[in-house]
Write a structure and sequence with these properties.
single chain, mainly beta, four-stranded antiparallel sheet, 4 strands, 11% helix
Length: 83
């Protein structure tokens, strides 16, 4: 199945976020879980004027999709029309 979704975004901000930061480079990656796309990781490399290079990595995993309890299409339709 091909859905042409974005799996990776890479770039840098148009302007440095602060005087103390000389450069930033980031990379976001995504993964497919069932029919949905979720963040897999975010990595940011920064060059700081005083402290040198800094790397921040955020990784997410173990997504678990669970339908709401007692949720069916029929009960949802009925509740939408009950006043």
């Amino acid at each position: 199945m091909t859905d042409n979704s974005i799996i990776r975004i890479e770039g840098k901000p148009a302007r440095n976020p602060s005087f103390w930061v000389r450069g930033v480079h980031f990379e976001h990656t995504y993964q497919r879980v069932d029919q949905f796309w979720f963040a897999l990781s975010t990595r940011s490399d920064s060059q700081l004027r005083i402290f040198g290079d800094s790397v921040l990595t955020i990784e997410t995993s173990d997504y678990l999709l669970k339908p709401p309890a007692n949720h069916t299409a029929e009960s949802h339709e009925q509740s939408a029309f009950v006043r």
